[in-house]
Amino acid sequence: MAFGIAGLALLFLLTAALYASVGFGGGSTYIALLALADLDYRILPIIALLCNIIVVMGATLRFQVRRLIDWRRIWPILLLSVPAAWAGGLLVIDRDSFLILLGLSLVVAGLLLLAEPFFRNRHAASRSAWSRRIWFAPTIGGAIGFLSGMVGIGGGIFLAPLLFLTNWADSRRIAATASVFILVNSASGLVGQLMKSQWEQAGMPITSYWPLFLAVFIGGQIGSFFASKALPEHWIQRLTALLILYVAMRILWEQFG
Questions:
Q1: Is residue 89 a contact partner of residue 193, using CB atoms and an 8 Å limit?
Q2: Where does the signal sequence lie (predicted)?
């Protein structure tokens, strides 16, 4: 492993702390770090989704206690995303196809992360007409859920910018919505991934990565209670986006170069 398990655990802890402070799980960055560590591509989604679940459970509870989760508006987004995430996780794809899909997904995730501050700062008197259409929430939920299940990304990094773009709600409620979305879709995608790899076979190598799960648990707790003051949030997003884009370009270069 390029980083070593201890170094990778430290990076996971920092990632979890940063993402949990804004309601995200960090799946895209876990995937990026795991890809750099040259792990078996089949186990990348399983580890990343487990880490997502560990981190966003605390964030979701925090948002629920603060009554920021609007379940009446969230359920249409989850309606198709949950079965779609399961189906995406269950889908069997070869190594090259997975890495190409992962690379392209990370490109999109990195660009959306860079653009999110722009979406967040947009001012509008009312929500966009797009977000009021009956098909809007199920469609974006299903599409993001399916992609998330396949590559092991919770999907919040795709969902949040779209919600900001359409003025779906204020920033705190969008963060709460993204947190719930990541939690349920990570769980659904994980079930699909484990069914695909078979529970018994998947359990053996996963247990050896327990330091990563402990690291994100600790980091998630830190992030849930203490928002990071080391860097402004927009700089955290930019640096994370650059890392994701670097890994994406490296993966795609190795596939097409």
A1: yes
A2: none
